[in-house]
Write a sequence for this structure.
């Protein structure tokens, strides 16, 4: 199954359904399920803003499966509209590139420690 590695807290915010868009500079043509891997990296500024949500923030583990529904080319109007959906998660940064629309986040329990990779990678997983 396809996997993407995200820094914390972004991985957990996706896993718990707070973050419905993943922003990338590149277009994703794939639609369907993708695993969320929490990498070793931490966005410390973002972590301070969301640490009161009471979420787990594991590292080096696959923590969720979500569905990629769409890949939206961003402009100022779309970026601002996404920011308004959840200001705690998205802030007010105007983004460029693409927003991958995510849905149906479900936590998974894969206890194996796994090093992350850049881009989309594959992992043998069956629900």
């Amino acid at each position: 199954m396809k996997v993407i590695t995200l820094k914390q807290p972004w991985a957990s915010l996706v896993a718990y359904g707070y973050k419905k868009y993943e922003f990338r500079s590149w277009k994703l043509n794939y639609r369907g399920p993708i695993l969320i891997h929490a990498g070793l990296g931490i966005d410390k500024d973002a972590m301070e803003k969301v640490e009161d949500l009471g979420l787990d923030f594991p590292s080096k583990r696959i923590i969720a499966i979500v569905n990629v529904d769409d890949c939206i080319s961003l402009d100022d109007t779309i970026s601002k509209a996404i920011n308004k959906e959840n200001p705690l998660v998205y802030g007010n940064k105007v983004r460029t590139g693409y927003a991958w629309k995510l849905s149906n986040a479900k936590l998974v329990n894969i206890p194996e420690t796994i090093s992350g990779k850049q881009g989309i990678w594959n992992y043998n997983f069956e629900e």
Summary: The chain has one domain: 2-113. The helical segments are 10-15, 44-50, 76-85, 87-90.
